[in-house]
Design goal:
60s Ribosomal Protein L30, Chain: A; 62% strand; mainly beta
């Protein structure tokens, strides 16, 4: 485990509201690129008209896709933005609820917003950098650099 505690008097907080039809992952990454957000904590609530969750299969070193092609509520979405090869990368987990009250969760691979997704992005006072891990094939946080 690697930990770096960074205290900052002021945090830069962004509220990012996504509209109907936007892909949540693509839109959050576009926001990060356009706003030069390199490292941040992300949380959100809202709803999707369809979503693709991912469950990481370590034996195959890839995500198994779990598509849900119906309206769902975002019960919680949490994750981070970190830099990989000079570009922001979103790592987020999401739990969604169906009409019957059942819940499903996993990695957020893709989610089509309907009617909205309200995200809070809190920049951190460090650069988080990802690097591909040869053992798992995942892009893991390798470096925490004080800015």
């Amino acid at each position: 485990m690697r930990v770096r505690t960074i205290t900052e008097d002021r945090q830069k907080v962004h509220v990012v509201v996504l509209d109907k039809g936007e892909d949540a992952v693509a839109s959050i990454l576009k926001f990060a690129r356009d706003s030069d957000v390199r490292s941040a904590q992300v949380s959100a609530i809202g709803a999707f008209s369809e979503i693709v969750l991912g469950f990481f299969d370590p034996g195959r070193k890839r995500f198994v896709e779990i598509p849900i092609r119906e309206q769902v509520e975002v019960l919680t979405l949490t994750g981070n933005l970190a830099e990989q090869d000079g570009q922001p990368r979103l790592h987020a987990h999401v739990a969604v609820g169906k009409r019957d009250g059942s819940a499903h969760g996993g990695h957020l691979l893709r989610g089509i917003v309907f009617p909205t997704l309200e995200a809070v992005v809190i920049e951190v006072a460090a650069e988080l950098r990802r690097k591909s891990d040869p053992e798992t094939g995942l892009a893991l946080i390798e470096e925490i650099v004080r800015t």
